[in-house]
C-alpha cells in the first residue's frame, strides 16, 4: 500500500479557461514545453517539498514561475487546491481507467493486470516529485481527509478486482485465504513512487515490469501464463488509451 | 527499492555517556517513558517533518524537549548527526540481524524469511514518523550520500539471500528468471513504513503478516509450505533476539 503512499485526491473540477478565447490559456507551450498550469504545479510541488506546505505562499509560487499572482488564481482557487490537484493527478486517471475496465467483458485476471499496468505507468509519468508531496505532514490533518477518499476508492477497486481474479483462478477456500493478502498488489504499485530515489528512469521501468509480474504471482497465476495475461492486458489498455486520447508512457512520450 | 523508501543510514557510532557515572545519562526514564536521547530524536523527527530540515534548529529541538542545548550536543554532534541517527535506526538493526543469519546453518528460504520478518518488526516499531523523515528533500543532496550506503548494503543482502533461496527451490533457469524480480521483496518490506497512513496499529500488523507471506509467494514457495517456513524463521529470530537482548515487537512491548 503505498509506502508509496499516495494520499489521494478529489475528482478534479472543471479546468478553467481551457479552450476559451480571450482568457489566459492553460495549454500554451512555453520555452520548457510545459503549460502554465503544469509550471505552477511543478513549482508548487518543489516549494512544498523544500520548505513545507505551511511556509509556501502562492506569491512565492507565482514568482518562481514568473507569472502574476492573478494568473495563478485563474488556474487554482488557493494553495490547498494546488495540493489537492497534485495529489489527484495520479489517482483520478487510475479511477477512470478502472471504471472503463469494469464495464468491459474481460477476464478478471486480465482486468486486474490492466489496472496495475495503467497505474504503474501513471506513477512513472510523475513529474512532480510526488514521493515528497505525498508525505507532507499536512496531509494527515482533517483538512485533507476528503483527499483520502479517492485513494480509498482506488484501493477498494484493487480489492474488488483481486477478489474476482482469485475466484476465477482458485477454489473458494483458497481464494478466500489469498484474498487476505491482496492489499500487497496495491502496495507493490504504490511502492513505485519511491523508485526515484534509487536513481534513473531505467530502474523505475525495471521495477514497474517486476511489479506487474509480481502482482500476478501474488494472485497465484501460473508462471507460464503470465506473459499471455500481460499481452491481453496491454491490448485492453491500448483500446482504452485510443478512446480517451491518452498516450502510453512507455513509448517515451512523457517520461522525462 | 522501497517506495517505502528508507534512505538509509551510516553505522551508529559509540553512544556517548552510556553507563558512565557523572555524565548526563542517556537511558533514564522520564515521565513519558522515553530516554532523553529518544526524546531528542522524537522532537527532531517531528520538527523536521513539520517545518523541514533546513528551518529546524538544534535550539528549537532542545526547547521542545525542555533540555539545554548543551545536553542535546552531549548526545548528538550536530543536526546532521540527528538526521543520520534517525535514518540508521531502522537499517542498522536489520544489517546486524542479516549478518547473524548469514553465519548460521539455516535453510536459505528460512534465512530470507527471518530477515523479512525482523525487518518488518523493526519498521513497525518505528516511533519517529520515519515515513516523513525518509522523504526530506535534503536526503537527495550529496551531503547525505553516505547515509545511502547502509541501505544499499541491506538491499544487496536481500538480493543475495533471495538468490540463494531461489537456487534451493527451483532449477537454475527458473531461479534466474525469478531473481529479476527479487527487489520486490525489499519493496514489500519497505512499503510497511507507509502503512501508518492507513490508520491504526492493527492495519500495520496485518500488512506485515501479508508481506511476509507475499515474500515467500514471490519466491515461489508452495502455499502449503509457507506456515512451516515462517515457524522456522521465527525460531531462528527468537534465538537471535535472546542473544542480543532485543525483545520481539509482537509481544507488544514497543508497539506504541
UniProtKB/TrEMBL annotation, chains A, B:
Gene3D superfamilies: Tetracycline Repressor, domain 2. Residues 34-94 form the HTH tetR-type domain. It holds the Pfam family TetR_N. Residues 1-36 are annotated as: Disordered. It comes from the Bacteria. Keywords: DNA-binding, Transcription, Transcription regulation. GO terms for molecular function: DNA-binding transcription factor activity; transcription cis-regulatory region binding. Residues 57-76 bind DNA. Residues 22-32 have a biased composition (Basic residues). Signal peptide: none annotated. This is TetR family transcriptional regulator.
